[in-house]
């Protein structure tokens, strides 16, 4: 829901911008994106061209490790400027943290906190510099006041691949299997979380 709202024109209560969606569980679904768009805003998305336009504004990156997530966040400044990004979604930090840090092992808690603090600091910088909203529920506390310089020019091959998947689905060519898209129940749960976070936005548009 958050991704769809960000791409809507301002006269509909949207941000008229692009979205960066960092997917750590390979569960992003083009089908689900379209279902949300058509069910929530049927009058606006009653023609395929508007759905295609929305798909080009949602840039999905699959990052499956803590290191990859940090590298992606560090490269976002250029992406935000060039693509006019208004929302950054990380779905989810908890997933990569659980996979890589067993808090029962000595030293892991320190490394975990170091990762969370650095990531939170980078996101805080982006939020303040570009007025991008942040979801504190999806990234545990630990940010610092220091602004980190961001790197750029990381490969965009993965973004082109997944954006292309969204577009192919809208054109009726999508043939992704359930395994590749992720389990429907887990997918619906994540989108439910996004919808809950946008209650205020929906009220303004009603």
TrEMBL record:
GO BP: any one term: double-strand break repair via homologous recombination
> Under the GO molecular function aspect, what terms does this record hold?
ATP binding; ATP-dependent DNA damage sensor activity; double-stranded DNA binding; four-way junction DNA binding; single-stranded DNA binding
* Organism domain of life: Eukaryota
Q: Which InterPro entries match?
A: P-loop_NTPase, Rad51_C, RAD51B, RecA_ATP-bd
Gene Ontology cellular-component terms listed? Rad51B-Rad51C-Rad51D-XRCC2 complex; replication fork
**Annotated region described as Disordered, given as residue ranges:** 136-206
From start to end residue, where is composition biased (Basic and acidic residues)?
Answer: 179-190, 196-206
All copies of domain RecA family profile, residue ranges: 1-144
Which PROSITE patterns is this protein grouped with?
RECA_2
Q: What name has this protein been given in UniProt?
A: DNA repair protein RAD51-like protein 2
